[in-house]
Amino acid sequence: MIPRGWKRKSLGEIADISSGSTPSRQKDKYWNGTIPWVTTGEIDYQIIESTKEKITELACKECSLKIHQSGTILMAMYGQGMTRGRIALLGLNATTNQACCAIRLDSSANTKFIYFQLEHLYPEIRKLGHGGNQQNLNGQIIKQISIMCPPLPEQCKIAEILGAWDEA
User: Fold this and answer.
1) Would you write out the chain's pLDDT as a tens digit for each of its 168 residues?
2) CA 86, 91, 97 angle in degrees (round to 5)?
3) Which of 94, 125, 144, 161 has its C-alpha lying 20 to 30 A from 135's C-alpha?
4) 129: exposed, middle or buried (Cβ count in 10 Å: 0-12, 13-18, 19+)
5) CB 37 within 8 A of CB 55
6) Nearest-angstrom CA–CA distance, 163 and 166
7) Beta pairing class for 95-96 and 31-38
8) pTM listed for this prediction
9) pLDDT at 166
10) Helices then strands, each counted (H, E), the chain
11) Residue 7, CB half-sphere, CA atoms under 13 Å: how many?
């Protein structure tokens, strides 16, 4: 039974969902710049404060890469082992490769509340993957993930409690 005032929504109803790309490795002018570039190997239930690689402004422009704002949730759409379905929170502005899904929530959702919910849903999210040799997620699948949405003040309180629990 769903508590009064809570609604079940798809992630796509409350978030902008997008992914990135990988600038050509053959073009040195795209690499070793100042713009953080996230890969799925860096998505592992943490706040991403730095990245292993950085790209240039030219790479952003010519490869149509979007710079995602700090506070954006990232989800690995594919990767080796247990990577698919893992999430992280951007702690800096960054771009991503094509295997990362950026989830930018609208004002009706508390980022930490949705983050904790997606973390809890990890086993179910992994099962949504499809494909041949390697099961993958994609933007359409992620948009359809069903989540619970209590009123915003309740989301904030739940996120505060879960955050305190995590810190303890």
Assistant:
1) 788 889 999 999 999 999 999 999 999 999 999 999 999 999 999 999 999 999 999 999 999 899 999 999 999 998 777 899 999 999 999 999 999 999 999 999 999 999 999 999 999 999 998 876 778 999 999 999 999 999 999 999 999 999 888 777
2) 55
3) 94
4) middle
5) yes
6) 5
7) parallel
8) 0.94
9) 78
10) 6, 10
11) 9
Look-up: residue for tokens 């996120």? 159
Q: At 157, give phi and psi (nearest 5°).
A: -65, -45
Structure tokens at 59: 């790479």
Encoded amino acid at 82, one letter: M
Q: Which amino acid is at 63?
A: C
Per the CB < 8 A criterion, the answer to whether 90 and 72 are in contact is yes
Kindly state the helix (H) or strand (E) to which residue 35 belongs, with its residue range. Answer: strand 31-38
Give the contacts of 83 (CB within 8 A, at least 6 positions apart): 40, 41, 43, 76
